[in-house]
Structures are given as structure tokens and as C-alpha cells.
Write a structure and sequence with these properties.
By secondary structure, this protein is mainly beta. The chain is built from no helices and 2 strands.
Length: 49
């Protein structure tokens, strides 16, 4: 649940979310899906472009 805090510098109220503490490593990484077919722009296929 978000917290309501007072900014001591500007004197206004701000909302702090606990979910913002999560880092990019905290989320599930999905595998890259291969849709199929030949891709001349993919790494290793530079000679085909």
C-alpha cells in the first residue's frame, strides 16, 4: 500500500510506493520466442544484408 509523506524541502505531500523498491532483477525474465523463418538482420547473418 502506498504511503503519504511530506517533502521536507518543498513542503508538499508525496506518495511513496513500496513496489518502486523492486529492481529489474526481481521480475521474471521471459525467454525470447523464435517465431521462425530466416532473419537476415539477426547476429551471424551479416553477410546476407
Amino acid at each position: 500500500m502506498p504511503q503519504l509523506r511530506r517533502d521536507p524541502v518543498l513542503g508538499r505531500w508525496i506518495i511513496i510506493s513500496k513496489e518502486r523498491r523492486k529492481r529489474p532483477n526481481d521480475f521474471v525474465i521471459e525467454e525470447a520466442k523464435v517465431i521462425g523463418g530466416f532473419c537476415p538482420l539477426c547476429p551471424g547473418n551479416e553477410t546476407f544484408t
